[in-house]
Amino acid sequence: MTKLYLYLSIFFLSISCVDAQKHTITGTLIDSGNNAIEFIQVALLRKDSTMVAVDYSDKKGAFQLSVDGGEYIMRISSIGKILLLRNIQISSNQLLKPIQINRPVVQLGEVTINQNKNLFERKIDRLVFDVENSSKSSSGNAIDVLQVTPGIEVSNDQVSLIGKSTMRVMVNDKLILLSGDELSNYLSSIPAQDIKNIEVITTPPAKYDAEGNSGLININLKKAKANAWNAQLYTIYTQRQDASYSPGVVFDYNKNKLSLSAAASFRDGIYNQEQYSETYYPNQIWRNQFPFSRDYHANDIRADLEYKITPNWSIGGQYLHNSYDRNINDKSQTTIDDISTNSLISTFASPDNIINNSALNSFNVNNTIKLDSLNKKMTLDFDYFDFRADILSTYQGNYFEDQTAPEQFYNGINGNIQSIKNYSIRLDFVMPAKFANIDFGTKYTFTKTTDNLKFFNSGLVDQLSDDMPLTYNDFRYNEGIEALYFSINKNISKKVSLKIGLRAEQTQTESASENLNFNKSNNYLKLFPTFYLSYKPGEDLTYTLSYNRRIDRPGFNSLNPNINYTSPFFSTQGNAFLQPDYSDNVELTQNFKNFTTAIYYTAEYNASAPIGLPNAQTMVIQNTVLNYINRQSMGLNGTYLFNRISWWSNTDVIDFSYNITSFNLEEYHPNLDGWIAKIRTDNDFNFNKDKTFTGGFSFSYIFPAVWRIYNLKSDNNLNLNFKYLLFNKSLSLSLQLNDIYRSNALQQTSTVNGVLQNARYYFDTQSINLTVSYRFGNNKIKGKKIASGNSSERNRAQ
Q: What value does the mean pLDDT take over residues 401-429?
């Protein structure tokens, strides 16, 4: 409890320390004609000229300052020119009379005016974070920026959307085909200074695939400078329990009609994971420790190309390659105790080895054609990816039924050569008109999955044999999806906007296995409406109500009905009868200056998820995937960004929701209702005026919670970071200390078939990261990134 109070104090200190016993001074600036003047700096200074508060007048000429009581000098200035100095005594809140000043004359093209504008802008279907006017624009990368973006959660460089089970990333409105570590490496290669803004789309409109209870992040980069190039070399060293490193290079080129962007990286290291579980059968307790280490080697290559054939027609393409080789060693040990006597009955060990080598090759060709000068345009995309994996797992162990019984043995082999191919074509139109803006389009995608499996399971035997006759199985899954969509966006008045859309998806699936004499087909049409209503009563205040319906199709591996054994007591099996599940999502958001809140509601119907099914009689656990969850969730999310002190910026996030969950299982399971609550604070400090030496800390705390079939214990995470820039900010040295207290662990409890199971997982998150990055060439250029239209299929393949 003492630690919890300490963590909560850290979280709220960043807010309370600047708001205690302050007096608010408000006023307006006008010219000789009583017209409001904006973009004028109003500052309060002590007698020694130290600035204690500053604001910029808005479109109505209004400003607001918050300071302690005392004597100050009010300084009004514009572009370095002092317009007014005045002594002021502050002992309470004050509303000043309108202050008349001479309107400054600015020659356009010679002076750049930096205004303290709102960093969050609410559009009808998304929230826009103005990165280039934030404190994050001077240093760091896209990962650093996403950490302070409303609605985004970054943990150990893994990015997710709060309240969403999945998330996809776009760059310049193009979907990126990467996930996991590959996506993190890619985002880390985008300098913050090249980002214009980030769009957070929690309820995607009809234009985007209805797949997944997901949201979108769109990173808009600044326009590239013509006839220039730049490059970045970097290497990342990470020390967890074992070391890993990842060198890489990024290159961008833009000349005349040609834009090129390319990147390559290599990852090599060892990842360790701690796993512990307890299973309470009627008369026995099975305690299982199954830590594993993963020795991995990965290569990532990306190349984007765009060529402007005419001023109105551009053609582009992308190639992605990822190869990932893993050697996994699992050291499983199990003890079995008698509940009544609390004495040891037996033990067994199940060490196994898994070799998993996979490769992905993806291609995209895209065309963008401007149809007229009113920004009407057509885009046409062709996509193809080929994913292959060769997996071989071997296990061997010994078992004592009790301390007096003779020793028994078991071993086995599981192998699979998997191939997934996907083809898609997409056609989109953007047709702005006087009465409304209209979008419509179509997409077709086809996926072919084949698995060639082999396995052997000896069961419990008195003596192992060198002869392990293999059984061969097969599995085939084909899926075709045809989609049509349209959306209409209309400004009903100056304050009210409306956007409605509808997406229709026709899906055909076929699952088959010759060895299992199994064949199943499915054909269904589903509609996915979207709705947005926005109301803007003032310049700094916006309310938005949104709704959409989504579908979550099973992952390709989840459908494979063949059984994999890891011991005579544990097996894994897919489910060829899995059905897609659906969700309805409603969100009401409010944006006021740098503060954003959202009230959200989600309902999931017949959702599928992995589940371990223990048998109390045989004491065998079968891991499978079932459609068994119906869940309703209502929550509140709030984000506040404080950036009014030049050397400190702070972002605070709070999210809590109440979940009501029911289950469709063969054996009755009571409803599981309860709260999920999270808090997070991110703080960044500039240690010098040039902002070349920076640092910060982030802290998050997750309270005890209920999620689906699990009761979760609390966990927390404290991270520190430091960054030093050299050679005109071309060389970057970064140091990160992650999960300092080694407290970011998943601990869960569930009861299935009357059997209680406890588990704890630690994902090797305590680490020291050292990153060295060097940029050269023209640092203001960034070539356009291209991505593909089959991102959701690729994610389901992994």
A: 89
DSSP string of 26-57?
A: EEEEE-TTS-B--S-EEEEE-TT--EEEEEE-
Assigned token pair, 780: 């203001």
Structural contact between residues 88 and 70, judged by C-beta atoms closer than 8 angstroms: no
User: DSSP letter string over 404-434?
Assistant: TSPPEEEEEEEEEEEEEEEEEEEEEEEEE-S
Contact yes or no for 418/477 (Cβ under 8 A):
no
Nearest partner of 604 among 539, 561, 662, judged by Cα: 662
Closest of 722, 740, 697 to residue 148, by C-alpha: 697
Task: Tell me which residue of 405, 489, 497 sits closest to 439, measured CA to CA.
Answer: 489
For 611, the token pair is 């589940």
Question: What are the φ and ψ backbone dihedral angles of 182, each rounded to 5 degrees?
Answer: -60, -40
Mention every residue, 6+ apart, whose C-beta is less than 8 A from residue 794.
Answer: 177, 179, 360, 362, 385, 387, 422, 788
How would you classify the pairing of strands 228-239 and 243-255?
A: antiparallel
The structure tokens 């071309």 sit at 730
Which of 205, 213, 203 is CA-nearest to residue 165?
A: 213
| Mean pLDDT (whole number) for 44-63 | 79
pLDDT tens digits, residue range 185-243?
677 767 776 788 999 888 889 998 888 766 788 988 776 566 788 888 989 899 999 99
Q: Which residues pair with 354 in a beta bridge?
A: 328, 393
* Stretch 603-614: mean pLDDT: 92
Query: What band does 787 get if pLDDT is binned at 50, 70 and 90?
Result: very low
Consecutive H or E run containing 15: helix 2-19
Q: Which of 604, 576, 600 is nearest to 590 (CA)?
A: 600
CA atoms within 13 A on the CB side of 526: 20
What is the number of residues in the chain? 798
CA dist., res. 197 & res. 145, Å (int): 10
Integer Cα distance of 28 and 26 in angstroms: 7
- Tell me how many degrees the CA angle 234-237-239 measures, rounded to the nearest 5: 165
Under a CB-based contact definition with an 8 Å cutoff, are residues 86 and 29 in contact? no
Structure tokens given for 248:
């890489």
Cα 280 to chain center, whole Å? 36
Q: What phi and psi values does residue 503 have, to the nearest 5 degrees?
A: -125, 130
Q: Which of 50, 105, 108 is nearest to 78 (CA)?
A: 105
* Residue 668 burial by Cβ neighbours in a 10 Å radius (0-12, 13-18, 19+): exposed
DSSP state of 460: S
Token pair, residue 225, equals: 């400078």
In terms of DSSP bridges, do strands 94-95 and 23-30 run parallel, antiparallel, or are they unpaired?
parallel
More confident residue, 535 or 779: 535
pLDDT at 457 over 80: yes
Cβ atoms of residues 279 and 755 within 8 Å: yes
What pLDDT is attached to residue 419? 94
268-271 long-range contacts (CB < 8 A, ≥24 apart) are 268/244, 268/296, 268/297, 268/298, 269/238, 269/242, 269/243, 269/244, 269/245, 269/295, 269/296, 270/241, 270/242, 270/243, 270/244, 270/294, 270/295, 270/296, 271/240, 271/242, 271/244, 271/296, 271/764
pTM of this structure: 0.77
Strand ordering across the sheet containing 126-130: 120-123, 126-130, 195-201, 214-221, 166-171, 174-175
Q: Mean pLDDT lowest for which of 75-89, 256-270, 277-291, 602-616?
A: 75-89
DSSP 782-795: -PPP---S-HHHHH
From the list 356, 366, 340, the residue with the least C-alpha distance to 285 is 340
